[in-house]
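Oxidoreductase family protein: structure, please.
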Amino acid sequence: MGDLDLSFIQDLENRPHVKVIEPEEVPVIDFFTSSHGDTKEIVSEIGNACRKWGFFQVINHGVPLELSKRMAKMAKEFFDQPIEEKKKVKRDEGNSMGYHDSEHTKNVRDWKEVFDFSLEDPRLVPAMDNLDDQELRTISNRWPQYPNEFRKACQEYSREVEKLGYRLLKLVSLSLGLPANRLNGFFIDQTSLCRINHYPPCPNPNLALGVGRHKDFSALTVLAQDDVGGLEIRRKSDGEWIPVKPIPDAFIVNVGDIIQVWSNDTYESVEHRVVVNTEKERFSIPVLLLPAHHVNIEPLEELLNEQNPSKYQRYNWGKFYASRIRGDYKKRDVENIQIHHLKKQHP
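Here you go.
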């Protein structure tokens, strides 16, 4: 399999070592242990977690704790502002980056507000009103004037998490029996984004969800959650909703639709949701790793054979993404396109 460079883990000897939770919980993968052992061990752990759960947590991962704390502080300061201030950077049909809440999308049952920004700024995406041709448009991030350090904190934090995400992609690739860099080329001129979620206390938590059940359309999602909790995943073995317990300074990682297609269903994008409560606000910050707009998504040919033929039609990522964004604003007669719509029918 070859050695994977794990030198990114910094000063681990000086970090407090985190206790791993019980095995029946979502798997926890410790990069401290893996950095002192065989690369095959961590590759095997990630492969098993992707097959059984589609989710895992990583600890001792090398992302500086001070950046995470600063990011959490900036997030709270931004969302604590009056709604009139937040709306100065609200998103719209022409640009999906910026602030929005459930009141301004079709997902009116979601009890949350959000700020989105792209890791590449500006970036090219297909024009939403011209999905049948190759017309592109440029979108740029919308940054608020306050907090003063908000933009800098967002950019520094997301770049560090992005580095972790790409290291995880290499490990996922190795776990599929592929070269570590097999997926790298898809992310040149990437469309990856970071989302800051704020879930206020809800007076009627039985009537709403922070986010309804869904699957991520990303390749991988790398998420930080605070100590309030609320994320639940649908366990593959029995369909039960399982809470993901907060672990200090951990990241939650989940397989998205793109890896499900690339792996030809070896790994599955798993449903998850967020529940809310009456007493405490909650923050979470996912970084969604997304390929370039021109990339066509289809099962990787190295994983296919007569016994395992391709299960998906090819789709263009940029047009798929633009179609999903358009569906957030315009009522449509059909459901937003999902990867199960692209399944091939085999005899």
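Notes: The chain has one domain: 12-342.
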